[in-house]
Amino acid sequence: MEIGGVEKHYPMTVRFQGHDIITTWAFTTIYRSLIHFKSVPWENIVISGNVFDSKGEKMSKSKGNVVYPDEIIGKYGADATRLWASSSSIYEDINLKDQELVRGRRTVVKIYNAIKLVSSLPDVKIQGELKLPFNRWMKSSLNNTVKKVQEAYDNFDISRARLETDNLFWNSFCD
């Protein structure tokens, strides 16, 4: 498809971009793609916020207050780090707080323990309708959460998807 002399071809569907470097990287990438390939490089761009340190200052290599991901991953684990990163909304700045990383690690441990528990239960083949009201409620809650999470992902709202998943997991499934 061609729009105004520019082919609409997306090798990627989305690019995540910090708001402070849009003119440097996003615009340059779009411009170069148009020059070299006569196409737009992605369909959507999601603008993220900045990361602030424990003192509330924007992290920056020039300030020397950057905490590198491998340090965080080494201390809290990759999954806990991913959970922390998913806690900010689009455009929203995020603070690097130990308590959020600790909560992420607790969630990962809780997921692991839930998997161990469910795996230890005998396999049960469910045929027909669920008879117990709790099981019907849990299935309904799961289906509703899946719809909400899919809608959030479709809108690139990763933090809302995480919040919906956390709510189901912590407040329904584990309780």
For the structure shown, list the relevant keywords.
two-stranded antiparallel sheet, alpha/beta, two-stranded parallel sheet, 6 helices, globular, about 180 residues, about 15% strand
Question: Your description of this structure?
Answer:
With 175 residues, the chain is an alpha/beta fold. The chain has helices spanning 22-37, 69-76, 78-85, 98-120, 133-154, 158-173; strands at residues 2-3, 6-7, 12-18, 42-48, 51-52, 94-95. The strands form three sheets. The chain has a two-stranded antiparallel ribbon. A two-stranded parallel sheet has the order 3-4. It is globular, with a radius of gyration of 21 Å. The mean pLDDT is 87.
Low-confidence stretches: none
- Main beta sheet: strand number and arrangement? 2 strands, antiparallel
Number of strands: 6
Backbone CA Rg: 21 Å
Global structural class: alpha/beta
State the distance separating the first and last CA atoms.
51 Å
Provide the β-strand percentage band: 5-15%
Q: Which descriptor suits the 3D outline?
A: globular
Helicity range of the residues? 40-55%
Strand order of the largest sheet: 1-2
SSE arrangement, N to C:
EEEHEEHHEHHH
The number of distinct helices, counting runs of at least 4 residues, comes to: 6
What is the average of the pLDDT values? 87
